[in-house]
What we know:
By secondary structure, the chain is mainly alpha-helical. The chain has helices at 2-6, 20-33, 45-52, 56-68, 87-111, 114-131, 136-153, 157-165, 167-178, 183-199, 203-228, and strands at residues 42-43, 72-75, 79-82. The protein folds into 2 domains: 2-82, Orthogonal Bundle (Arc Repressor Mutant, subunit A); 87-228, Up-down Bundle (Four Helix Bundle (Hemerythrin (Met), subunit A)). 72% of the residues lie in helices and 4% in strands. A hairpin with a 3-residue loop joins strand 2 (72-75) and strand 3. Helix 5 (87-111) packs antiparallel against helix 8 (157-165), helix 6 (114-131) packs antiparallel against helix 7 and helix 9 packs across helix 11 (203-228). Residues 1-5 have low confidence and may be disordered.
Amino acid sequence: MAxxxxxxxxxxxxxxxxxLGEVVYEVxxxxxxxxxxxxxxxxxxxxxxxEMAVSRTPVREAVRKLKAxxxxxxxxxxxxxxxxxxxxxxxxxxxxxxxxxxxxAFQAARRASEDEIRGIRDCLEAEAxxxxxxxxxxTVEADIQFHSLLYRASRNKRVEDLINDLRExxxxxxxxxxxxxxxxxxxxxxxxxxxDAIAAREPEAAxxxxxxxxxxxxxxxxxxxxxxx
Length: 229
């Protein structure tokens, strides 16, 4: 109970134009991604509804969506718990992401316009400033923005869509790896190598830089899992 009391209180924006179930889902997902709810923590619908001052219906809707996205697991007659990440989960997601991002970087080196390259460089510089702070949420958003511009510059909509389909699975992993001490500095340098290769119109180098970036993120995440167990 002490850990539960220490986490930030859940707060719902009742002025949002989104359906209440979606708002509640975003609040709970953010709490899980930020590790306010830890793997194995039980989520009690009644308690969550009382804390957020909502009925159990939007909480139930949110929990169902979280289950579909593997954030939580439901055990018959026991309840709903925050899902733990296994090394196999990490390997599966990063294996797919490494292949897709390497392909996106390769194609971006061949197809990106000069304006797109400048846009990615500008994003990288903004990213460096944000990463000097300690706001994890803004750091994650900056990382997502960099990669999104890279995907778009590949001019391959299918690859972009496939990577974006992994967004929910990678969001939690991204938050975990970027919060690891020292990881930000290395990740920023890895981003620079990717965009330098793209700007130099060197597809093979861009491919290797993107693969290396994702592989190192995978190693960090696996290290975290070993530490937690």
